[in-house]
Amino acid sequence: MARKKKIDSNKPTKIVKKRKVGRPKKRGRKKSYYTPKKKSKKVAQKGFSRNLTYNRVRAVLWANFKDDFPNYRVFISNQTDDEGKKIKGTSIVSQVFAQCKSLDCLDSDIIEIYNQFKNQNPDDERPILPPYYFDNHYYWELETEDWWAGFDDRVWVVAPMLIQDPDNFLGILGSDRYVDENGELLNRKFDGRRGDYIIYGKSQRFKEFINYCNAMQSQGLIGGSSDVPNWRFVGEEDDEADVYWNPFTKRWEVRIVICDPLGTIEDYGFIPNEPDLGLDEDLIQDILKKPKPQDTTEEITPTEEPKAGLSKEEIKIKQKELEQEDRRLKLEEERSDRINKLLQKYLDDKIDTETFERLLKLI
After folding, report:
1. CB atoms within 10 A of CB 135
2. pLDDT tens per residue across span 96-145
3. DSSP state of 182
C-alpha cells in the first residue's frame, strides 16, 4: 500500500486551473448589442380637434345619401378628365372633406355642404346680399364683425387673395358657433365646465391677413385708418356688386378682395401661402403714394358747384374733387359708426378693456 505524500503547510500549493470548454473569450473592444430607439419626429395629427376624419365624412355621406349613387365605387371615385384620367380630390367625399379642413364640422355641416354641392341651380332666384357688403371695410372688421350670419345659404365665398386652399367656403358656415359636449347648438349660456366648446368658423382663417396688416402698423409703415388695407365683396367682375353663378363650380358665388381705402384692388404684398413673409416697404409706400384727386387741387365743400365759364377739363376736375370729398365724409361717418359699435360691444361685456383700447386705436 502506497504511502500518501505529506504536504508541507509552509510550502505554497500549486493551483491547477481547469480549462474551460465552450465559447472562447472575446478579445478587444466589447461590442454593444443595444440599439437605441430612434426618436420619432412629431407629426401633426391628421383630422381635427374632435376626430373629424375622411372616414367620418365618408360614413356620414354614405349613410344619408347612398341612394344618390348607383354603387359605392361611384360614390368614392374621383372624376375623370377628357382623356379619361382620374382627377385627384374630385370625389364628392374629398370635396366635402376639403371644406372641413379648417372647420370643426358637425355631422349636420357635412350634410349641409353636400346639399349645396348637389342642389345648386342657376335657374333659381338669384341670392341677394345687403348692399353695404360691397362697400369698403377696414381689415380688422373681418375679425370684429360677423359677416356670415346674414348670408343666403346657397352662396359660397371665394377669397384667394386672403386665405389658403381651399380658398372658398360656404358662407353660412363662416360664423363661430357655441355647442354642447354632444355637438348640439346651445340654446343657453355658454359653460365650459359642462363640456361646451366653440366651433371656430371659416372667418378664423382671415387671422393671418389681419396679423399681416397689424404688422404694417406696428412697424410704422402705415399710420392712421385712412391708409390701412381695406376689403370688400365683389361680383364676377371687380366693379360688380352682386352674387353671380359660376358655371364651372356650378354654384352661386361672391368674391372677397383686398383693396386700398379708395376701393382699388391691392394685395399689399400679402401671400396667403406665405403669411409670415416679410413686409415689402417699397411696395407698400408705392401704394400709399398713388396720386389722389385732392393731392393736386384745393379743397372745396361738397355743396360747392362748378363755376360758370370753366372748361370741360376743369369741370371734370371739380367733379372729381366733389366725389372725393363725398367719399372722405362717408369714411368719417363709417368710422364714427364703427366706434359706436365697438363702444356698445364693450358696454355689453362682449370684449375686454384691453381689446377695446387696441381696436379703438386702429379705428
Report:
1. 14
2. 998 887 677 888 889 989 998 888 888 889 998 988 999 999 999 988 88
3. T
CA distance 136 to 333: 13
pTM of the predicted model over 0.70 = no
Task: List the alpha helices (DSSP H) in the chain.
Answer: 54-65, 72-76, 92-99, 107-118, 141-144, 207-218, 281-288, 312-347, 353-362
DSSP summary character for residue 46: S
Contact 88, 80 (CB under 8 A): no
**Alpha carbons 293 and 265: distance in angstroms, whole number:** 18
What's the pLDDT score for residue 36?
A: 58
Highest mean pLDDT among 116-125, 217-226, 320-329: 116-125
Exposure letters 9-38 (e unless 16+ CB within 10 A, then b): eeeeeeeeeeeeeeeeeeeeeeeeeeeeee
Listed residue (192, 170, 166, 161) closest to 179, CA to CA: 192
Residue 79 pLDDT level (bands cut at 50, 70, 90): confident
Instruction: In whole angstroms, give the CA distance from residue 130 to residue 158.
Output: 17
Sign of CA pseudo-dihedral 139, 141, 147, 149: positive
Can you say how many angstroms the Cα of residue 363 is from the centroid of all Cα atoms in its chain? Answer: 23
